[in-house]
Structure formats: structure tokens, C-alpha cells
Design goal:
- The chain contains 8 helices and 17 strands.
- With 310 residues, the chain is an alpha+beta fold.
- It has 2 domains: 84 residues, Copper Amine Oxidase, Chain A, domain 1 (2-Layer Sandwich), CATH 3.30.457; 209 residues, Zn-dependent exopeptidases (Aminopeptidase).
- A 6-stranded mixed β-sheet has the order 13-10-14-17-15-16, sandwiched between helices.
- α2 crosses α5, α3 crosses α8 and α5 crosses α8.
- The longest helix is centred in the C-terminal third of the chain and has 26 residues.
- It is globular and about 55 Å long.
Length: 310
């Protein structure tokens, strides 16, 4: 079925292929819950917001109601839900184990990143601190770590991906903190992966044109792995921080477009929220952020290892 030029597939039929065979209307014609042995998915008509095992995931295209079922876009089925439902299936038998990880502390130098002027806080300071903490944690696990910066200097966005590529990084993790103009009550963590080709990014509305949507970037070579990595990190970060789930999202950020490895950008919290900003000011909370990201990377690496052992 095609809607507004977008191919769709019956959600019940698609999810049943992965053992998610129980479909229950929580609101007839509008909201559906699909369940398997260890899986629960919730989708809603005309929404791009969904839940996968209690975690918020953002679709590229809205869910539609047709006949007697809900339909999801084929790209969301193949590039979002399939990797989540069968993460081991995203790795080929020849997939390399995770050994080299590039960590990218966002901003630096003259680029302060977002600010909380009332508290005199700059994003660049906290991204570097969390990145260095993450480096220590991952080095203890035996990983080789590449840093795009280790001090307060400006690194152009294209150079960050190039540093990772030249080092042969197996993963790329960009660390950031968020801000919302005029919305000081917003808080929580969100994780971004590269937007699949032919889809809109999360922040792009249906009425907006997305000029990059038709292009295939190097980062799209790892679309399924990006999903597994992003979901693992978002899930573990929320487990560690107990904060608001802002969702697993998609964006064509410059640092994600040209990386030759699975890559994510983590928005660890909101400096524009005073209460959360005060938490971020504490070393203990920043250590927890690093621990959550590290746990997500370990969960991702475990999927690689389990697939290679089969």
C-alpha cells in the first residue's frame, strides 16, 4: 500500500514474522499494542511516536489506519523495527568485534555549544568532562579509544568524522547537552542516529522539505547497526539516570553523515532546565552519564559477540 508516495506494510503481518503475534486494540482504529514473548510495541494512528519495550522511539513516517489494521512505513519496518526485533541479524558472520571506539566531545574552543547564562554554564565544558570519564571506563574494558579532542579546542565538524575514519573506529559516539528556547521545564535524555535515505529527520514536519532525504551518505551504510547502538545506549542511559525518556531519534547531523562506522549522538540532558543543569554540574551525575553510555556500548558489543559465536 502507498500513502502520499510512501510504501506501507500491515503492522500485524510484519511483526508476526518476528514472533510478535498478539495484536490488541487499546483504542479501536487508533491505538494498537503488539506483544511477543519478550516484546511489547505500541503504535498510534497519525503518530510518529511509538514505544518499543517501554522506550520511546520516533518513526520516520506516521502510522496510518487502513481496513482493519494499522500500517507502518516499509522504511520504518526495515530500518527501525527489524533491527530492534532481531539485533543479532544486523551483524554478518564477518562483522568485526568492537575494538576501537571514537569519542567526540561536542563543541570546544570558540564554539561553546548551548549555554545556561544564568548559571554561567557552557556545553563544551561538560561534553569534554563526560567524554574523558567515558574514555576511562572503556579503556578499563580493554577498548582502544580515539578522542576527537582532549582539551578546549575547536574541531570542525567534518574533521571529527575524519579522525574516526582514519583511526578505523568501530563505533563513533558524539556527546552533547541540549537546550530548548523558552521551554525551561523540558528535561531528559535522547539519542540520535543517522536518518535513513528517503525519510524525514525527527525534527522535520510532514509539511517541510528535507533536501538531504534523497541522498545516501556514508553513515547510511550502517543504518541497522545505528539503530541497535542507539537503542542500547538510550536504554542503558535511562536505566542509569532515571530521567525523562526523550526518545531514540533520527537526524542528519554533520558528525553522523560521514562516519564509516555505526554512530550516534547523545544529548545527555538539558542545560536549559535549571534542576537538570544543577545535576549536570555535579561530578557524580556526569559519571553516571558516562556509565550509562558505557553500559549501552557493552550491550551493543554483546550482540556482536553473540552473533559471532553462532
Amino acid at each position: 500500500m502507498t500513502v502520499r508516495g510512501i510504501g506501507y506494510t500491515d503492522a500485524r503481518v510484519f511483526f508476526a514474522r518476528y514472533g510478535v503475534k498478539k495484536a490488541v486494540w487499546t483504542k479501536t482504529g487508533e491505538q494498537m499494542r503488539l506483544e511477543g514473548a519478550n516484546t511489547k510495541i505500541e503504535i498510534e494512528t497519525d503518530k510518529r511516536d511509538a514505544e518499543f519495550n517501554g522506550r520511546r522511539v520516533l518513526l520516520g513516517d506516521p502510522v496510518v489506519f487502513y481496513g482493519s489494521s494499522l500500517y507502518i512505513s516499509r522504511i520504518d519496518a526495515e530500518k527501525l523495527f527489524a533491527p530492534l526485533l532481531n539485533p543479532a541479524g544486523t551483524f554478518s558472520p564477518s562483522s568485526s568485534a568492537v575494538q576501537v571506539i571514537a569519542i567526540d566531545p561536542g563543541h570546544g574552543g570558540q564554539d561553546t555549544g548551548t549555554q545556561n547564562k544564568a548559571l554561567k554554564l557552557n556545553e563544551k565544558t561538560f561534553t569534554l568532562d563526560v567524554a574523558l570519564r567515558l574514555r576511562t571506563l572503556l579503556q578499563k574494558e580493554g577498548y582502544k579509544i580515539i578522542m576527537t579532542r582532549t582539551d578546549d579546542r575547536f574541531i570542525p565538524l567534518p574533521d571529527r568524522a575524519e579522525i574516526a575514519n582514519k583511526a578505523g573506529a568501530d563505533l563513533f559516539i558524539s556527546i552533547h547537552f541540549n537546550s530548548v528556547e523558552g521551554a525551561s521545564t523540558v528535561f531528559g535524555s535522547e539519542t540520535y542516529a543517522m536518518t535513513p535515505q528517503y525519510q524525514r529527520s525527527t525534527s522535520t514536519s510532514p509539511s517541510e522539505k528535507d533536501p538531504g532525504a534523497r541522498l545516501a551518505y556514508p553513515g547510511n551504510n550502517h543504518d541497522p547497526l545505528n539503530v541497535v547502538l542507539g537503542y542500547c545506549i538510550q536504554n542503558q542511559l535511562l536505566n542509569k539516570l532515571g530521567t525523562e525518556d526523550r526518545g531514540f531519534k533520527r537526524a542528519r547531523f554533520a558528525v553522523l553523515r560521514f562516519v564509516n562506522a555505526p554512530a550516534v549522538l547523545v544529548e545527555s540532558g538539558y542545560l536549559s532546565n535549571t534542576a537538570e543543569a544543577r545535576k549536570i554540574c555535579t561530578a557524580a551525575y556526569r559519571e553516571s552519564i558516562a556509565e550509562g553510555i558505557a553500559a549501552g556500548i557493552k550491550a551493543y558489543a554483546a550482540v556482536t559477540a553473540s552473533n559471532k559465536s553462532k
